[in-house]
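Before a colleague's protein record goes any further, I have to sign it off. I want your independent view on whether this chain really folds as the tokens say. The record follows directly below this note.
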Amino acid sequence: MGKKTTTAEIVSQQIEDMIAEGALQEGVQLPPERILAERLKVSRPTLREAKQILSSKGLLKSKQGGGTFVSSSLNAYISDPLMELLKERPEFKFDILELRHTLDSEAAFLAASRANDAEKKNIQEKYNVMVDLHTSREDHVASALADINFHLSITEASHNIALLHVTKSIYDVLLSSIENNLKHLYTISDIEHSLNPQHKLILDCILSGDSKGAKKAAKKHMQFVNKSISEMDKKYERHKRFLHHSSVLSEKK
């Protein structure tokens, strides 16, 4: 005969579900104990026991006199030395682009059919911020952050927990990749006139509920980025060869 599940374990599972499904985001503070206990219809001692269970799993963190928070490092267990290697070595940028090709296109497909009004509004707001920064060309880091936040808002609207957690787990790698890509893409004259319409098409398809269109638009966007960066790499290598040959020919005997 199996062990009987306690009320505290049931409550901890409810809170755990909220975290897994994104209702409780990383770093967010839980409501005050009295209020949360009332909402869950349990006693405060039972709630405290449930919180202790989640704290032992590393899902919650308590601050002395400051309340209880969802752990801000939920995806730390997914990171490893390879992630740091991918982040630090720009030569792996095409591996990252291939990964983004898959993640972003699937997220766009799902978001188009699942996003609610609040999520659509959030995606629109993230798009507006991104376009302003892309157009100004003043801050590569801020532009990269705005870019990934736009795509992340789409992933959040996909309602696919596995997809969201995988994307968040490689957030730093993606941020580094996008920042590096934008730094190079900005060397192309009027590149924002290509990037902004591509992002707008993804946005419009999601807002209108066109799943296939959203997936196709996301794929075309990543193909454009991949092709543009590949062509820049080839141009850079040709320039390096030219400089090398020039130095050899001009070298004094």
